[in-house]
From TrEMBL:
This is Thioredoxin-disulfide reductase. It comes from the Archaea. GO terms for molecular function: oxidoreductase activity. Residues 326-335 have a biased composition (Basic and acidic residues). Residues 7-286 form the FAD/NAD(P)-binding domain. It comes from Halosegnis rubeus. Pfam families: Pyr_redox_2 (PF07992). Keywords: Flavoprotein, Oxidoreductase. InterPro entries: FAD/NAD-bd_sf, FAD/NAD-binding_dom, Ferredoxin-NADP_redctase_2.
Length: 353
């Protein structure tokens, strides 16, 4: 175990929401740590969709790596590790324990996300026929044969939604008894969606690595470009629950508009909270959360009570309200940003005698 380091903000989880939170808290002058076990939904992306300014050919890992480098460049500390425990101290701060990291922090931001429940194989590769985000990936299936997999209410609804993009939609229950309501059953029957109840026996891929077809238990083979499994989510809420944060009925963490949970000093952002599971949405949540942390933690303006407690007017020497570590890093960063570009051709010319 390393020596304990003190921070104002510690972000647990390194997806788009957590990274954006850390970006804001660091640039707003708060010593920030990020502890990230790695992986997550964004890391699985072969291509990035619906993020303005980011080319589609950018992989999830490339996107996250660039973001991590930005956060560290501004002065945050990044740790690749798994947070095993968080405990509230008597002074209201938190002890955060990971494998090789020990942190004391004033605020905790949980960005631990969830795991999609995967159906049994055979399944195509994620991003090459198996897709988890309807709003991200439906566009790529315009005029393509598509499956939706599952037997619940969500699967039936998504199958009908996909008719906005293609007229070839199959709903694969894989032998499970349908659990959608009678009203949804009537609605589904009125839409041109074919419900296939047979279990999948085998799968064929094309030369490009994408799904080509499924063969079912009755011997029928049906071609698909790809589709969406709808089996629910496992939310990573153990740390939140231990700290006393309340959960919603769907398993997400209850938060206000700025990510504050019902536990003081504990925030949550991203897929672990209610709302659309989208990178731009997560980034917006992270920005709001980072700004709220700044409002709660910033030194100035001091209240009248604080001014009286410290004995009167504030000395100029008390400013700026930022740690020496971040102050130095900001100076370096701003000097680098302000440096004029070097003309390599001119620099290569020999000096006159």
């Amino acid at each position: 175990m390393s020596d304990t380091t003190e921070y104002e903000v510690t972000v647990v989880g390194g997806g788009p929401a957590g990274l954006t939170t850390a970006l804001y808290t660091t640039r707003l002058g708060h010593d920030t740590a990020m502890i990230n076990r790695g992986g997550g939904r964004a890391a699985m992306m072969l291509d990035t969709h619906n993020v303005i300014g980011v080319p589609e050919e950018t992989s999830g890992n490339e996107f996250l790596q660039t973001a991590r480098e930005q956060v560290e460049e501004y002065g945050a500390d990044y740790h690749q590790d798994f947070v095993s425990d968080i405990e509230r101290r008597e002074d209201g701060r938190f002890d955060v324990t990971a494998g090789s990291v020990s942190v004391v922090t004033e605020h905790v931001v949980l960005a631990t996300g969830f795991s999609d429940v995967r159906p049994d194989p055979p399944l195509p590769r994620t991003g090459r026929g198996l897709h988890w985000c309807l709003h991200c990936d439906a566009y790529m299936f315009v005029d393509q044969p598509v499956f939706v997999m599952g037997a619940g209410e969500a699967a039936a609804k998504v199958a009908m939604i996909m008719l906005n993009f293609t007229d070839e939609v199959d709903l694969l229950t894989r032998g499970d008894e349908p659990e959608w309501s009678d009203e949804t059953d009537r609605q589904l029957a009125a839409h041109p969606v074919e419900v296939v109840h047979q279990e999948i026996e085998s799968m064929e891929k094309g030369e490009d690595g994408w799904l080509k077809s499924f063969t079912f238990a009755d011997g029928e083979t049906r071609e698909y470009r790809g589709g969406f499994p709808m089996y629910g989510s496992d939310y990573n809420t153990a740390l939140a629950e231990k700290l006393g944060a309340e959960l919603n009925d769907d398993g997400t963490i209850a938060v206000d508009d700025h990510g504050q949970t019902t536990a003081e000093g504990v925030f949550a952002v991203g897929d672990i909270t209610p709302g659309h599971n989208q990178i731009p949405t997560a980034m917006g949540e992270g920005a709001r959360c980072g700004i709220q942390n700044h409002y709660d933690l910033r030194t100035f303006p001091m209240s009248l009570d604080e001014i009286d407690e410290q004995g009167g007017d504030i000395e100029r020497s008390a400013a700026p309200g930022i740690s020496e570590t971040l102050r130095g890093r900001a100076r370096e960063h701003n000097a680098e940003a302000a440096a004029p570009p070097v003309d390599l051709d001119e620099a290569a010319e020999p000096a006159d005698d």
